[in-house]
Amino acid sequence: MGKQWKALLLCVGLFLIGCGVQQAKVFNDRYGPEQVVSRVDGEPRTGLTYYEDIRPILEKRCSACHSCYDAPCQLKLTSFEGVDRGATSLMVYNASRITADDPTRLFIDADTTPGWRDRGFHPVLNERTQEPSVNRENSVLARMLELKAKNPQPKKELLPQSFDLSLAKANNCEPSESFDSFEERYPLWGMPYALPGLTREEHDAILKWIADGGLMRQPETTSPQAADIIARWELFFNGTSLREQLVSRYIYEHLFIAHIHFEGLPSREFYRLVRSTTPPGEPVDEIPSVRPYDAPGIRPFYYRLKKTPAVVVKDHTVYRLSDTKMRRFNDLFFSPAYEVSSLPSFDPNTAANPLRAFAQLPAASRYRFLLDDAHFFVNGFIKGPVCRGQVALNVINDHFFVAFFDPDKDMISNDSDFLAEVSPLLALPGEKENTLNILSIWFTYSRNQKKYLKTKDDYIDRLHPDHIGNDITHIWDGDGGTNDNALLTVFRHFDSATVLKGLVGQVPKTAWVVDFPLLERIHYLLVAGFDVYGNVGHQAVTRLYMDFLRMEGENNFLSFMPSNRREEMRKDWYQGTRADLKNHLENPLLGLSRETGVTYGTQAPKDEFFEQVLAHVGPVIPQQDPINRCPSGHCPTEGDTPQRLAVEKSLRRITAIKGRKTEVFPDVSFLRVVTPPNQEDLAYTIIKNKALSNNSFMFGEERRRRPEDDTLSIVRGHVGSYPNAFVRIDVDKVDTLANRYLKVKDEVTYYLMARRHVVRRTSPDFWDEYDWHCRTFLNAHPVEGGTFDLYRYIRIAEKEDGTLVEW
């Protein structure tokens, strides 16, 4: 029987190979042989150019789904280079792979079209005989658009079931040679997928450009005023002394994912800090290392600034550089007296541990560097170098506050010698790179974490033999109330998350208080040291280690609570026998024997703590949340109009919805309140906060859900990269909307509300609504803003029996 199966498989394999060969011959005869086409600096015959005519359409319509690692078929339509690279069936997200995959980062891992063909990408533009008819007929992109035009989305209330909108849906990455079969099987799957089609003008413009050969004139690489600014910064980053080299390496390893914006340049012009084989003054030749601390493989190398193309919200983390920032870097790293005797190795055992690699730099300087832009660094791990992070993000709660230890009060964050001494205990999984020895590594890091916490506890006891613990002054006040990075809020939206400045929403279940070694390790664990292409061991150990860091931040917060309430509070965070046992083994209440120095006058110490913290930080952070945390029911902020106050009085009623009634609401809904003509419509975000019994395990989140504790938050403006729904209501009917929200209790009643107020994928005005949200967000945040991703936009669809609905 075994021989028969082998023979059958051999026959099937030979048959498929034969079909492929025959298919290739047909296309060679019809369209000519395959050959990579040079499209740059070509002269368009139609008068349409990529940057002026085509890119705006792709940015408005196509980058809504094709812009990040989770873009279907890795087809990134945010830039010409992404279009020219094409598509592949290779998956970025694969949590079960045994060995690491080769990375496929656009602009980094290959810089030529042949290079991408060698990496398994096939063209979506014609790469055979260059004639207008062939350019259209042999272009996957053109045929996807024409498929949509021939089979427009059905004009019905509900989207057909044939559309697969799950995150785990199979890739259908057909090259042009097999597109006929795809078209027959999925006639409704043209682009834009499961959304209304392009306008006739947009459709015709792209097809004319494709027929003309998909050409691009090379644009200016920088704005005229950028050259001098870049030259000064590249001079700064490429100093030759040991101290200058170490400081530049430290800054680079923290800013490598940043979209850098220079003061004085256009608001949408961004750069990346990269390592290059070429010195300033020559074209950048980026070194494509997987991690920023990997050995560069060449000496000397240079830090360069490389322009980055259009951005979308989900991977847009902005870091601002200016003359003021350069003076700040000099004050932090070059004014203090210290010696750098040698440069650290790029060996992972050293380079993956920042507290070891950069021990020669003053700890106080490093901590202040991070605090100055704490929102950026926390945002780095929340958004991260990836676009989909549910396994990583289920290590955090859906809503929590973050505060930081004051750098002048926290001795550990200032003591370079102590941190150097304990640095072996603070090693990170990045040193193991891709491993399968998960359990052994976990036990090693767990043991090291407990040793570190015990050593830290003993150190603090020596400094404070009176056993008096932290008080409010140990919380960083933003340098005297001048820095709005002092307090942060994190909202998690299943597999993505958002960081906001200030304390937004109701007081959450948990909070973190972060010191320097904790903040540094978070960055190196989840940003600098994380490889989305890494194997299952790397991703699992990273997730498990983040447990330690989250619990350390939570324990720091508990140190400010009354000692007789700490165990009770933590038990509420970690419910369930397995969670209790895991917490006891991994994270005993080390360092919490000292009584808090905070004075409390109520039985709600958590609420009272944040009231005191807000007063301590001062007006640089709003003292109240006008919608979610407004005890008086009237919490105006500067510039509020009577109209806005009336709207928010009604919206406040929606935030009262709690428990299982919230289950049917999407994670993130953008709300547009339509005002009379000549007034600006108002934007809000409705966020569902899902409660868990604990965060102690990587999988099985649904088994740990506590829907009875779910809540809703409503925030001014736009929160989140992936809207799940657009809600629209006239300003004089907001109270009616609140009434209808309050009546929702299941999928059917949600559907009845949604058919009145939610803009669905089948709505003819869908793109108008999407454009309004993108435009409004960008107007409010001209530097930090970007386009929203529609990959998570929900649908309302009929069940198989045609009687009920689901979303």
**Number of strand elements:** 15
Q: Main beta sheet: strand number and arrangement? A: 5 strands, mixed
Helix content: 25-40%
- What is the typical, i.e. mean, pLDDT? 89
Portion in strands: 5-15%
Detail the poorly predicted runs.
803-807
Terminal CA distance = 48 Å
Strand order of the largest sheet: 11-10-9-12-13
Radius of gyration: 28 Å
* Helix vs. strand class: alpha+beta
What's the number of domains? 5
* Tally of helical segments: 28
Give the overall form: globular
Please tell me about this protein's structure:
- By secondary structure, this protein is an alpha+beta fold.
- It folds into 5 domains: 1-31; 38-211, no CATH class; 220-343, no CATH class; 390-623, no CATH class; 641-806, no CATH class.
- It contains 28 helices and 15 strands.
- A 5-stranded mixed β-sheet has the order 11-10-9-12-13, with helices on both faces. A 4-stranded mixed β-sheet has the order 7-6-5-8. It has a two-stranded parallel ribbon with strand order 1-4.
- β9 and β10 form a beta hairpin.
- It starts with a helix and ends with a strand.
- Keywords: Isomerase, Signal.
- GO terms for molecular function: isomerase activity.
- It holds the Pfam family CTI.
- This is Fatty acid cis-trans isomerase.
Task: Name the features.
39% helix; Fatty_acid_cis-trans_isomerase; globular; Fatty acid cis-trans isomerase; five-stranded mixed beta sheet; alpha+beta; signal; isomerase activity; 15 strands
